[in-house]
Design brief:
457 residues; alpha/beta; Rossmann fold; 3 domains; seven-stranded mixed sheet; five-stranded antiparallel sheet; 16 strands; 39% helix; SAM-dependent_MTases_sf; SAM-dependent methyltransferase
């Protein structure tokens, strides 16, 4: 037996659990799940899903690393990074995760198995695409029973998609509150009257709401044939597939490069400088904060880096995700992130789901045309920002946009200028407490300056 630490999110399923030992993540399969695990492998379901890149592959290790009596076998899954959650995904990512879950379910049924849960925590984005990661989520199919995870699937996937579709607003923060899924009564109250024209909404929201609140919900469920279940799956697939691909509403930054960028010349000069910075460092991964629709994320990716591209604007992340899908870009993961309010540690004991920066660790952090929005827009002072970047950035590419810049001038028209230390001198003073400035390059034709820094020590 070796020393091990059980993953704080893996405690609910008696089938097994994820644990860390000697820097590696493993999954223990318990005796409780032995028959289902053998069926998963012997039926050919595991191989078919892995061959389709729908299920994470694993290596089986015949060693009881935990020393527990309930041990059956140990799995070493293919590593996945970064780890993200549904409240950090755009609409299209949640949509694709839902469709993957239904596809895996349908394939499982053809092999005599079924998914016993329908949660987005079973999905991660790997090489630009969603992939199922919970090997122990499969159970033996009982034709006398309906899909036990139907309600959970609706609460975690279908209801959030309906809410964003009809309300035309981001619902990610709601998902971080209802981490086990949005209750049907809450959704039924929020959806507008026009949603009642949709058969899908009637069947999966209002009918379910009525059944949940009536005494009939306590009665034994009648037999539910495989054909009925496959029909339900097909109906759900049609609903989720038919959501419009392009949203009609604009958001704050969704047209940034078309309408609000200073000039094409600025963008070209900035790109030359960042290309130069990329050639002078050996970073293998980068966190691009305020990435917008990923213009510079793609530049970092072209240098072979694994890129986590973040923005608080869902339409920007959606556009980037669509480009990643269309061009099969495997080394960019787009995620929604409000830097002033990043995903905290939540769930049981505040450990079940780790905070964003506890999960996302990179060699390099990029903060391009971002500092002025945080200082002037969010009242986050330069000293506080410098301390923040020291916590997350071994290397840093950062752009300083001074008060002389026209964009900063526009921001200051709507509020008093109380930012007495917002200048290049103080910026460098605060940041050099933690970082050494390796390169400092003014962007030609502007007042802006790009820096490449390394954390001291």
């Amino acid at each position: 037996m070796t020393n091990y630490t059980r993953h704080p999110s893996s405690f609910k399923d008696p089938s097994g659990f994820v644990f860390e030992s000697e820097g590696m993540l493993y999954r223990q399969v318990n005796q409780y799940y032995a028959a289902q695990y053998r069926q998963l492998l012997d039926s050919g379901l595991y191989k078919q899903l892995v061959d389709r890149h729908q299920l994470i592959a694993h290596e089986e290790i015949a060693e009881n690393k935990t020393g527990l009596a309930e041990w059956y076998t140990t799995l070493l899954p293919q590593p996945i990074s970064p780890i993200s959650y549904a409240y950090e995904w755009c609409f299209e990512q949640l949509q694709d995760a839902a469709l993957l879950t239904l596809s895996v379910l349908k394939t499982a049924l053809h092999h005599g198995m079924i998914l016993k849960d329908g949660t987005p925590y079973n999905i991660q984005f790997h090489k630009g695409k969603p992939i199922f990661i919970d090997t122990l989520s499969f159970d033996t199919y009982d034709p006398k029973q309906p899909w036990i995870a139907y309600r959970q699937f609706c609460q975690c996937f279908l209801f959030p998609l309906y809410l964003e579709h009809y309300l035309k607003t981001d619902i990610q923060k709601i998902l971080s509150t209802y981490i086990d899924g949005i209750p049907v009564d809450f959704v039924a109250k929020l959806l507008p009257l026009k949603s009642r024209l949709s058969l899908g909404v009637w069947l999966h929201v209002y009918l379910q709401h009525t059944a949940t609140t009536s005494s009939r919900a306590n009665k034994q469920t009648a037999a539910f044939s495989k054909k009925k279940l496959l029909d339900v799956i097909s109906h759900l697939v049609n609903i989720i597939t038919d959501f419009p691909a392009n949203k009609s509403y604009k958001t704050t930054w969704s047209n940034y490069y078309e309408d609000t960028i200073l000039s094409k010349e600025y963008l070209q000069e900035k790109e030359k400088i960042i290309q130069q910075f990329c050639q002078s460092n050996n970073a293998r991964s980068v966190l691009d904060l305020g990435a917008n629709d990923g213009y510079f994320s793609r530049l970092f990716a072209s240098h072979g880096m694994q890129v986590i591209a973040t923005d608080s604007d869902s339409r920007c992340i959606s556009r980037l995700y669509q480009e990643i899908k269309n061009n099969n870009i495997g080394n960019i993961t787009p995620l929604m992130l409000d830097i002033a309010n990043p995903s905290p540690a939540i769930g049981f004991h505040n450990r079940e789901r780790a905070a964003f920066h506890d999960r996302i660790k990179t060699d390099l952090v990029a903060a391009l045309a971002l500092v002025h929005h945080l200082v002037i827009g969010k009242n986050i002072s330069l000293p506080v920002l410098a301390d923040y970047f020291n916590d997350i950035a071994p290397q840093l590419i950062i752009e300083f946009v001074p008060k002389e810049d026209e964009k900063v001038q526009q921001m200051l028209k709507t509020r008093p200028d109380t930012f007495i230390d917002y200048d290049v001198h103080h910026f460098e003073q605060y940041f050099t407490r933690y970082f050494s400035i390796i390169e400092k390059v003014p962007v030609p034709g502007t007042h802006r300056i790009l820096y490449y820094m390394k954390r001291k020590g």
